[in-house]
Amino acid sequence: MNKFTLLFAFAFIFFSCDTKQQADILVINANIYTVNDSFEMAESFAITDGKIVEVGTTQDIQKKYKAAETYDFSGKTIVPGFIDAHAHFYGLGLNQNVIDLVGAASFDEVVSRIVAFQKEKQLDFLEGHGWNQNLWEVKEFPNKEKLDSLFPETPIVLTRIDGHAYLVNQKALDLAAITTETKVEGGIIEVKDGKLTGILIDGAMDLIAVISPTISKEVATKALKDAQEICFSFGLTTVNDAGLDRRIIELIDTLQQASELDIRLYAMVSNSPENLEYYLSKGIIKTDKLHVRSIKVYADGALGSRGAALKEPYSDHPGHYGLFITPVSEIHDLAKRIAKSAYQMNTHAIGDSANSVVLNAYTDVLGNTNDRRWKVEHAQVVSEEDFHYFKNGIIPSVQPTHATSDMYWAEDRVGKERIKGAYAYKKLLDIAGIVALGTDFPVEHVSPFYTFYAATARKDLKHFPEGGFQKQDALSREETLKGMTIWAAYSNFEEKEKGSIEAGKFADFIILNKDIMTVAEDEIPNLKVEATFVGGKLVFKN
Questions:
Q1: Cα torsion at 252, 258, 263, 266 (round to 10°)?
Q2: How many Cβ atoms are within 10 Å of 304's Cβ, its own excluded?
Q3: Which end of the chain has fewer CB atoms at under 10 Å, N or C?
């Protein structure tokens, strides 16, 4: 070998040692559920500019890439960032500063929490959230008498757990000018023995808006940041907020653009004349973090407050059918108007009558156009003759923890026959091909692990019932993980950018303390997120 050949050989070795591609981050030695089309496993991936550039084995990725930062997860389980397909993100944040009534076992406990809160805060207007009469020994709506005696000069507004009923005191009623003669469309002002009880259901709740304190920009900003902190701790990287006004949507965009809010949000626009006029004419709004392309409509109320619209009377309230918040004819007209735009129509439908009306309106307006991805939010009680509508590209967006929260009293509401078509997630999946899964927080707990457990085991946190509630409608673990990731992304027209760990997608992923796909069933609710990444950025570390 001459001198020239020797120098060439050394040069070749030198340059070949530096042929690795530069990435920003390498993730290695992990147990990765990619949730791609084949549901493949992987060990490693490389990230550049917030997106995944390649997925493979640790050996292959390290051989091909170098990076300034490497995370060695030593066999820990990684899944795509969870997507909550139906929640109230902004509402969760606001609830951090009101009286927490969730889980109160009696109305006396509700009152004691209010007294303790006011003793500390001394506010001029009291708000609480989360009371649920179905948890009490006497499962009846409370009345305002005790609140009137304790707080005669302080208005009080207490929201039921489902967000579809208020209990207010007389001071609040007086300020809102509500009397026994007040009429309201799409709601109920409860009157017993000629007197107001303080219960306002669905449309009647709007009458209180005129006396509610104005939420400042500072308070709204704090609420959004508080909600983000909670969501990241549970591995949620995208949240669908089911009902936002323009003011909050624009605030979210401002905070995201200023890098003060990292979470990705799919905003459903609240159905008001002003919102409709603005957004339908403006068109889709899309950034890396914010997506505005759907209108949230309420067909009916909630089953727990007997506001869900049923075809036949409530089994535990003869003669009462529930109510439509949006008149039936208006639902059809809204569908026509929204269909002329690029927007989705996402409609809250709980009762079998509401589901039937919504499904018929969707089908009539969309015809054979089956990729508009319009959603039925909740699809909670569906008649046997209406399930087939979901074959037409209509997406059921459901919340599994509703089944395990409601199972103690739902059959009382609808009877033995109708309950068979309630919370029927497996049947909906078999017909629709996908289900988008969410929590509906703060109606239910934020934890996606509770969602996962309710979907697969059909049990509550007490591991009841032993065999699972209507277990024939349980989802498999693979189906559930898809419903919380790639199917939820698809329902948002975002399946090409998130929902799985694949090249070209955002590096949104979470590290779990145990393998969610193999851990013992009853351990699922106790799983923990060890780290959450959004766009390759570490946003939460346990």
A1: 40
A2: 24
A3: N
The three-state secondary structure class of 240 is strand
- Tell me the two tokens of residue 204: 């009647």
Cβ proximity of 293 and 284 under 8 Å = yes
Cis upstream peptide for 142 (omega within 30°)? no
Classify the phi-psi angles of 391: left when phi > 0, otherwise alpha if psi is within -120 to 50, otherwise beta. Answer: alpha
Q: pTM for the whole thing?
A: 0.90
Strands 156-160 and 165-168, bridge-based pairing: antiparallel
Q: Which two tokens stand for residue 60?
A: 């292959």
Place of tokens 């170098």: 66
Closest CA to 395 of 374, 372, 421: 374
| Closest residue by Cα to residue 507 from 9, 7, 24 | 24
Provide the residue type at 159 as one letter. T
Q: Can you state the angle between helices 273-282 and 246-257, rounded to 10 degrees?
A: 50
Report pLDDT digits (tens) over 381-396: 999 999 999 999 999 9
Report the distance separating Cα 363 and Cα 369, nearest Å: 9
Tens-place pLDDT, residues 54-98: 999 999 999 999 999 999 999 999 999 999 999 999 999 999 989
Dihedrals phi, psi of 239, to nearest 5 degrees: -130, 135
Q: What angle do CA 531, 425, 296 make, to 5 degrees?
A: 75
Dist. CA 390–CA 20, nearest whole Å: 49
Around 35, how many Cα atoms within 13 Å sit in the side-chain half-sphere?
Answer: 30
- Cis amide bond preceding 442, omega within 30: yes
At the topology level, CATH places domain 97-208 in Diaminopimelate Epimerase; Chain A, domain 1 (3.10.310)
What backbone torsions phi and psi does residue 255 show, to the nearest 5 degrees?
A: -65, -40
